[in-house]
Amino acid sequence: MKLFFLFFIFSFKIEEPIIEDIIYPKSELKLNIEHRIVANLKVEMEIDEDGRVLNFVFLNSENIEKERTDYFFNFFKNQIYGKKIKPCTKDGKPIKCNYIYTFSWVIYYPPPEVHYQFYNGKLKKEFIKTLKGDEKSIKEYEDELERNALKILSKFNLKREENEEFIIYSNLNNLGFVFQELKNFKKFFLKNYNLKEDIEFPNQKIFLFPNKETLNKFIEENKLPQWADGLYIGPLNLIFSLIPIEKKNKEVFLHEIAHYLINKVLFENKYLPIFLKEGLAEDLLYEYIKEIKEDLKRWESYKTLIKRDKKNYGILSFLFF
Q1: What phi and psi values does residue 212 have, to the nearest 5 degrees?
Q2: Per-residue model confidence as pLDDT tens digits over 2-40
Q3: Is residue 119 scored above 70 in pLDDT?
Q4: Which helix (H) or strand (E) is 19 found in, with range?
Q5: Does 55 share its domain with 204?
Q6: CATH code where residue 54 lies
Q7: What is this structure's pTM?
Q8: What's the pLDDT band for 253 if we cut at 50, 70, 90?
C-alpha cells in the first residue's frame, strides 16, 4: 500500500512556473544610508499552458509604505502581465495554474530630508541636501513650509511670541512655560557638552500645533514622513511639534529641540547616519529627564519593544548608538 501511494505521488509531479530576468527597484539617490530593510510584495498570477500571464492580482505587502504600494505593484506588473514565462508543468506537461509569488528586495530608507512624492503612478524625487545644499533652494523650501504651517495654524487664533532666540507660533495665550523649558534644556545641553553659555541661535522658528490631527494634516499635505510626531529638518530653521503640555508631547518637542541644538552646534548641519542622529537626541533627552527627576517610561518602553522584536535590528539603530 505504501509503495502504491509513493508511486501515485511521483507519477503526478507538479513543477512551479519559472520567473526569470526580473528587474528590481534600485535607489536613485545613491546615498550611503545605514538603515535598510527587506520589502516583500505578494501577488497571485493566472498562467495559461503557454506560460502567458493572464491575471496579476495584489495580495499583500510588508515593509512598504502605503502610498508606495501601487508604484511597486505596477513596477512588477508591467514586466510580467501579458508576457510569457515558463509555465507550470504536471508530470512534465504544461498546465494552466494559479501561482502565488513574492517579490523581495532591499529598500534603503533615507533620512527625513529625503522623501518621495507620487503623482499618477509616476515617481517624483525631492532631495533637500544637508551637506551641499543650494542656499536658494533651501530658503525657498523653508519659506514654503512656513507658509503652509501658518495657513493651518491661522484657523486656531494664531499668536506669535518671541525672545532673543526663538520665535514661536501657536494658539496659546501665554508661552512663558515653553520659553522657560527651552532655556532650561539649552542650559543643560551646554553643560552636558562642556560648551560656552553665550552661544545664541537667533530667529529659530517653532510651530506648535494644537492637536495631532492638524499636525498630521500639515505632514500629509507637505509629503513629510507620516510616522513623525514632530520634525526638525536641518538645515532649515524650522521646528514642528505639538504643544508641549502633556508629558509625551513635551518629550517629543524636546527631542526635536535636541536635534536642532546638536545639529547646529556640534555638527554644523552636516549629514549624520540616522542611528547616530536619533541616538544622540534620545541620549540628551534621557539625561535631561533624569536630571529633572521625571519618570523614564519612554525609555522603559524601548526595552519592552526590543524584547518583543529582538530580530528587528532596525529598531535598535533608532534608539541607541
Answers
A1: -65, -35
A2: 444 443 444 456 687 888 778 877 644 444 344 456 778
A3: no
A4: none
A5: no
A6: 3.30.1150.10
A7: 0.57
A8: very high
90 & 175 share domain: no
Give the largest Cα separation in the chain, rounded: 91
Q: What is the DSSP letter of 119?
A: E
Residue type, 152: I
Same domain, 155 and 290: yes
| Listed range (42-51, 74-83, 91-100, 225-234) with the worst mean pLDDT | 225-234
- For 263, the 3-state DSSP assignment is helix
Q: Which of 217, 213, 196, 209 is nearest to 252 (CA)?
A: 209
Long-range contacts of 190-194 (CB under 8 A, 24+ apart): 192/284, 192/287, 193/265, 193/266
Q: Which distant-in-sequence residues (6+ apart) come within 8 Å of 99 by Cβ?
A: 16, 17, 44, 45, 46, 47, 88
Containing structural domain, residue 91 = 14-109
The sign one gets for the Cα dihedral 308, 310, 311, 317 is positive
Instruction: Give the pLDDT band (50/70/90) at residue 206.
Output: very high
Give residues with Cβ within 8 angstroms of 262, minimum separation 6: 189, 277, 280, 281, 284
Residue pair 226/112 in contact by the 8 Å Cβ criterion: no
